[in-house]
Specification:
By secondary structure, the chain is α/β, with parallel strands linked by helices. Helix content is about 45%, strand content about 15%. Strand 5 and strand 6 form a beta hairpin. Helix 1 runs antiparallel to helix 5. The protein is globular and about 55 Å long. The N and C termini lie far apart (about 55 Å). The relative contact order is 0.15. Uracil binds next to helix 4.
Length: about 200
């Protein structure tokens, strides 16, 4: 069993906060283990809690469409959440729940080692950039500790607001270009230093 699968099994047994009492299933995440792209949502909703899989409800269908717009599907990326159990009635996660759960996501990131983390919604953005405001930084990227972070609105928010739909769809289209730029930079860094022919 892979280290990531082992970790996800551990996550599925987590009892470290109150959410464990009310969940049907833990939702550790799923996708390719060495994905270049890691999408991080907020928390499981009703359908995710029932199935133990991330983004399987209406927001998930929309995320699938967004992925298809850049010729990707969920089997080519990894999808996880900030918190792994559903908060009752889909309320916002509490700071203590986020704090308790964050070590799981940090461990997943270490094992997946993605080139880019796409944050979906403000809770996910705040994990990495606590002082930023999503309406200001969505659609922009920032490099931190060797990983490029790209902030997007949450697909569920965009589903219900036409204005955000236009924005999230445009932001998604920026991802392939960013990945290509990252590859160009990595290639340039691998080029052997040009030796001077004249010894100077
Ligand atoms: N919303 C999320 O943030 N995550 C899910 O897995 C589903 C809906």
């Amino acid at each position: 069993m892979s280290a990531l699968n082992k970790l996800n099994e551990e996550i599925a047994l987590c009892q470290s906060c109150e959410l464990a009492k009310y969940r049907t299933k833990v939702v550790p995440g799923e996708g390719v283990e060495d994905a270049d792209l890691l999408f991080v949502g907020e928390a499981p909703g009703y359908h995710e809690d029932q199935q133990g899989r991330p983004f399987v409800g209406a927001a998930g269908s929309y995320l699938d469409k967004l992925l298809a717009s850049i010729n990707l599907n969920r089997k080519q990326v990894y999808i996880a959440n900030v918190i792994k159990c559903r908060p009752a009635k889909n309320r916002d996660p509490l700071p203590v729940e986020i704090q308790n759960c964050r070590h799981w996501l940090e461990k997943q990131i270490k094992l997946i080692n993605p080139k880019m983390i796409v944050t979906l919604g403000r809770y996910s953005m705040a994990m990495f950039f606590p002082s930023k405001i999503i309406s200001k930084i969505h659609g922009t990227s920032q490099k931190k500790d060797g990983i490029v972070y790209f902030a997007m609105y949450h697909p569920a928010a965009a589903l219900h607001q036409q204005r955000l739909r236009t924005v999230i769809e445009a932001d998604m289209l920026k991802i392939p270009l960013l990945l290509a730029q990252m590859e160009d930079i990595a290639k340039a860094e691998q080029q052997p230093q040009q030796l001077s022919m004249f010894g100077d």
